[in-house]
Amino acid sequence: MAAVAPSELAFVPFVSVENMMRLIHRIGIEEMLKGIAGYIEDDFRRWESFDKTPRIASHSAEGVIELMPTSDGEVYGFKYVNGHPKNTKSGLQTVTAFGLLADVDTGYPVLLSEMTLLTALRTAATSALVARYLAPEAADTMAMIGNGAQSEFQALAMRALCGVSRLRLYDIDRKATDKLIGNLSGLGFDLTACSSPQEAIEGAQIITTCTADKQYATILTDNMVGAGVHINAIGGDCPGKTELHSDILKRATVFVEYPPQTRVEGEIQQMPEDFPVTEMWQVITGAAQGRRDARQITLFDGVGFATEDFSALRFVRDKLAATGLCQQLDLVADPDDPRDLFGMLQRATLSEGAA
């Protein structure tokens, strides 16, 4: 980080929800999805430079609250995120988040941002980036099973990065499907509402499962999945929450972000500890093979990893400079003498009393 005066470091750029929405509209949502995917791809290529740890989770009967930290040795980042599937019944979001970047040399924060919207973007960008490496060639049809808050982002990312134009949609709640169709109508997609998961996957080369219930569910059974498809399984993202029958995993080649986290949270939590998986950074760097042939079933067991949030925050930070779409938060105490924090407090107390 370039040298700056200590007083400048006390004020931290903050991206509010309003300014994040302005940034997305200024860049364009599909361009932003492609941009974030590019940063994620770059960071996968330098995977071995990152500190990596499974996210730190606090589980309850109603959901989970998590911290997701990482560092590349120069910049440190973390995301706070929750997952509470029942929130929608109270008019609340299932997932909310905020994130921070800090300078490793000083420990000072350099960006604080909303990440509810940004998490939706980075999740979709990761899915589409992986599909670009693993999906059948010229795939143009995706089944979207689970039509909640993430579904539109998945659709737009798959089009932006993979050329998907036809969507076959199913949700146990028809209102969710109607919402998705309403939001994407007029945006150039061929949209088909389906009455079952089986109907939704007919003719689809990519199958995305993104349901929210915290339970061992079977959204797809083995007999539903034909040869040659790519499954983007992103709904099973915490212990006790899965979407696929274990027999599908046995037939598929399974790709993951970070095995120590995915074995606890992903679809492969159903499998033995030594169940074979391939890490996506290895595919992206050419160290491992992705799709081998037209009949292979590829499965991305995506749970979301801290480096992807780090990538998204870096993208936002790089784009902010020319926009002015941030506020300056007085977040860090800045005494005239760094050894005299108490004196700063006392002077403020005297000033308040005089006022």
Protein topology:
Elements: H1 6-9, E1 11-15, H2 17-27, H3 29-45, E2 56-59, E3 64-71, E4 75-83, E5 97-103, E6 109-114, H4 116-134, E7 141-145, H5 151-162, E8 166-170, H6 174-184, E9 190-193, H7 197-200, E10 206-209, E11 216-220, E12 230-233, E13 242-244, H8 246-251, E14 253-256, H9 259-265, E15 278-279, H10 280-285, E16 298-301, H11 306-320, E17 327-330, H12 341-354
Parallel strand pairs: 1-6, 7-8, 7-10, 8-9, 10-12, 11-13, 12-16, 14-15, 14-16
Antiparallel strand pairs: 1-17, 2-3, 3-4, 4-5, 5-6
Describe the structure.
This protein has 355 residues and is an alpha/beta fold. 35% of the residues lie in helices and 23% in strands. The strands form three sheets. Strands 9-8-7-10-12-16-14-15 form an eight-stranded parallel β-sheet. A seven-stranded mixed β-sheet has the order 2-3-4-5-6-1-17. It is globular. It holds the Pfam family OCD_Mu_crystall. This is Ornithine cyclodeaminase.
